[in-house]
Amino acid sequence: MDLKGMVDKAKNALKSNPDLIEKGGDLVDKATGNKYASQVDKAQDAARKAVGAQDRGEQTKSEQTKGEQNRDAGDK
Predict the structure, then answer these.
(1) Dist CA 51 CA 12 (whole Å)
(2) By the 8 A CB rule, do 44 and 22 touch?
(3) Backbone angles phi, psi at 55, to 5 degrees
(4) For the chain, what is the mean pLDDT?
(5) Long-range contacts (CB closer than 8 Å, 24 or more residues apart) made by 10-17
(6) In terms of Cα–Cα distance, which of 51, 73, 60, 43 is closest to 7?
(7) Do 40 and 28 form a contact (C-beta atoms < 8 A)?
């Protein structure tokens, strides 16, 4: 397998399981005692963008919207 093939395989794996990006960042934060947490967060966001995965902010917004829709449906 050539380098491009390996990169594509890694991108597909991360896109289908973006939690791996989060877990990797958490490991770095743990190893550094959160000393570089803001840089790690930026790197995680860049990795999500590079592979086309939804970032944490978008996930949170979509989860909130679903919760609001479920709450509103319960009011009817």
Answers:
(1) 7
(2) yes
(3) -85, 165
(4) 81
(5) 11/50, 11/51, 11/52, 12/51, 14/47, 14/51, 14/53, 15/51, 15/52, 15/53
(6) 51
(7) yes
Q: For residue 44, give the amino acid letter.
A: Q
Residue written as token pair 């590079």 = 50
Pairwise CA distance, residues 11 & 47, whole Å? 9
Per-residue model confidence as pLDDT tens digits over 19-30: 999 999 999 999
Structure tokens at 28: 């770095």
The tokens describing 29, both together, are: 């934060």
Tell me the whole-structure pTM to 2 decimals. Answer: 0.63
